[in-house]
Design a protein that fits this description.
Shape: globular
Radius of gyration: 21 Å
Number of helices: 10
Strand content: under 5%
Number of strands: 4
Structural class: mainly alpha
Length: 307
């Protein structure tokens, strides 16, 4: 711990052979970060400029991809700075802010996927009421709810812990997530219950809602004609795969945090990287290749010179 002007610093101790591989780490993560920004921004740009994509489903996809860029920006710049620094440290206040953004945007991801599931449910199960239900005001309210509800709930939890005393000052990770809880001197039962309530509201509840809506879609599609089943498969499958993918990575994050003392340092680093490395790249690949309308505009964009 270093105290300069009453600022408490936390040492980040999750890297493996930093002195030996710092430039390899930097090159890999910098390349991935640029790919994340470019791939997600390209699809958002296509949705923005093409009037045919100004529908609720594509607006939610654009919001999800923007969320991926924001999520990556919370983590990657600090990682890149650490790779080029002699000492990997972060102030306690900056660590709390990174933790707040990390969980807020993670919760927003689940709520955006829930909004997309609701949109598909109305489109397939109540097609005659779709235009009435999924109006611009409804889409706007769902977007505001998806971004501000997790922020508010996580902010309360983080604020209550901001001035709590630390007994350890070495973070066994590469960025500030739930691992910071192991640094506190005392974690009370009330704090644990509060965290569980927030996680239930912004993660488990949206997942249960998504599973319910897709079960209803599956039942309706099975009873309907072939065209309805085809439409359901084309539009719902990418969302479901993204949900499973993100849920698995969140599971990795929980396992790596709770069982960090039982894992070798290299294994813990690899598990932690799963959360921030693959998922932000997986989203644009999935929606760019599997969503027919987006793929059509994407193909035109990159093949325009040949044409």
């Amino acid at each position: 711990m270093d105290n300069v002007l009453n600022v408490t610093y936390i040492t980040i101790d999750g890297y493996v052979d930093m002195d030996k591989y710092r430039y390899v780490y930097f090159l890999i993560m910098f390349t991935v970060y640029i790919l994340i920004i470019c791939s997600n921004s390209t699809i958002v740009y296509l949705i923005w400029i093409h009037q045919s994509l100004h529908e609720p489903m594509y607006i939610f996809i654009a919001a999800l991809l923007v969320n991926s860029v924001l999520f990556s920006t919370v983590v990657y710049p600090k990682l890149l700075i650490d790779f080029l620094s002699e000492k990997q440290i972060i102030s306690q206040s900056a660590c709390h802010f990174q933790r707040f953004m990390y969980f807020s945007l993670g919760g927003s991801e689940f709520l955006l996927l829930a909004a997309m599931a609701f949109d598909r449910y109305v489109s397939i199960c109540k097609p005659l009421q779709y235009a009435t239900i999924m109006r611009k005001t409804t889409v706007s309210k769902l977007l505001v709810l998806a971004w501000f509800l997790p922020s508010f709930q996580v902010a309360v939890t983080v604020a209550l812990k901001a001035n709590q005393k630390l007994c350890r000052f070495t973070l066994t990770g590469i960025f500030c997530n739930a691992a910071i809880n192991k640094l506190y001197c005392v974690v009370t039962k009330e704090q644990f219950v509060r965290v569980m309530i927030v996680l239930f509201n912004i993660e488990l509840l949206p997942v249960l809602f998504i599973l319910f809506t897709y079960t209803r879609i599956l039942i309706i599609s099975y009873r309907s004609c072939r065209e309805v089943r085809r439409k359901a498969a084309q539009t719902c499958l990418p969302h479901l795969i993204v949900l499973i993918n993100f849920s698995c990575f969140c599971g990795y994050d929980v396992i790596a945090t709770k069982l960090d003392s039982d894992f070798p340092k290299t294994v813990r680093l690899i598990m932690t990287l799963q959360v921030v490395l693959y998922h932000p790249l997986f989203n644009p690949i999935m929606y760019g290749l599997k969503m027919k309308e987006i793929y059509k505009h994407l193909k035109r964009l990159f093949c325009s010179d040949k044409n």
